[in-house]
Amino acid sequence: MDALRCGTAGVAFAQVPPADLEALLAAKERPTAVLTYHVVAGEVTAEDALKINSACTAQGGTLTIDRSDGVRVDGARVIQADVETSNGVIHVIDTVMSPAS
Which of 10, 38, 54, 85 would disulfide-bridge 5, Cβ 3.0–4.6 Å? Predict the structure, then answer.
């Protein structure tokens, strides 16, 4: 998937060990689960994130929000918050999060 090599997605996916990335892409449902694990319904801004400790994902899992050392979501460090897009707001993180298998 060339899209996984572009921009900030490329930086995050570059941190995934090659064997793990191959396994991820081998199962059709797994990439969808990983991608939707990064999506939360509604618009959660950085200000909103200061008031919650977790958020439900489109995949059905729960993200843990930790503010003890900067802001981390399931261990991924938020490196840029509140990026406005045409369909919501995103927060750039430094790694790929993966739901429990």
Answer: 10
